[in-house]
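User: My advisor, Dr. K., asked me to get a structural model of this assembly before our group meeting. I'm new to this, so sorry if the format is off. These are the inputs:
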Amino acid sequence: AQKVTQAQTEISVVEKEDVTLDCVYETRDTTYYLFWYKQPPSGELVFLIRRNSFDEQNEISGRYSWNFQKSTSSFNFTITASQVVDSAVYFCALSEAITGTYKYIFGTGTRLKVLA
Amino acid sequence: NAGVTQTPKFRILKIGQSMTLQCTQDMNHNYMYWYRQDPGMGLKLIYYSVGAGITDKGEVPNGYNVSRSTTEDFPLRLELAAPSQTSVYFCASSSPGLKNIQYFGAGTRLSVL
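Assistant: The format is fine. Below is the predicted structure of the whole assembly, which you can bring to the meeting.
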């Protein structure tokens, strides 16, 4: 069965601190996709990144970086020099490819509070 | 660029009433999804569709129905609303040819009292 675990329910940091959000997944598929979404207080879901199972390269986008490690089934998200605007709930999601439906399995989310 | 549009944004229903949540996308995506998000939880899949005329159940389909008569529209019907259906509902669409990234609507906040 597929599963996504975000063990950190809530994290509070002070502005300018670095913070890492953990995501651990389970799947028996060899082809799959991992995603991160941001849900700010306004409630919409904003796509941040997609990674496929064959691409273990880490990625950096401005203050955001992602570390994908198949050996530990993890896809962690780091925010460097956090800002108040980063306060949101962050969701990790897993999508399988084998059935062709590309359904997502979401983690329960991590609420990040960045304090000024 | 409208993307995925959901209406209404908010609704209060009485127990036993019915309603339809509307979802329209203008990106010509074949795949569409309905999720519900309960407080402190992730999103759970209610129904999905891989194309017009094709729908299938997700993880939590009980109490809901969907139809997909066009590529653009994917309405979600609640029959005999119950307090357990109080939630925020999100519609999403994607295209496998576009890295199957799901794009979400702004959500519908529904309360059943």
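One thing worth pointing out at the meeting: Chain B touches chain A at residues 31, 33, 35, 40-45, 48, 50, 56, 58, 88, 90, 92, 94, 96, 99-104, 106-107 (CB under 8 Å).

User: Perfect, thanks a lot.
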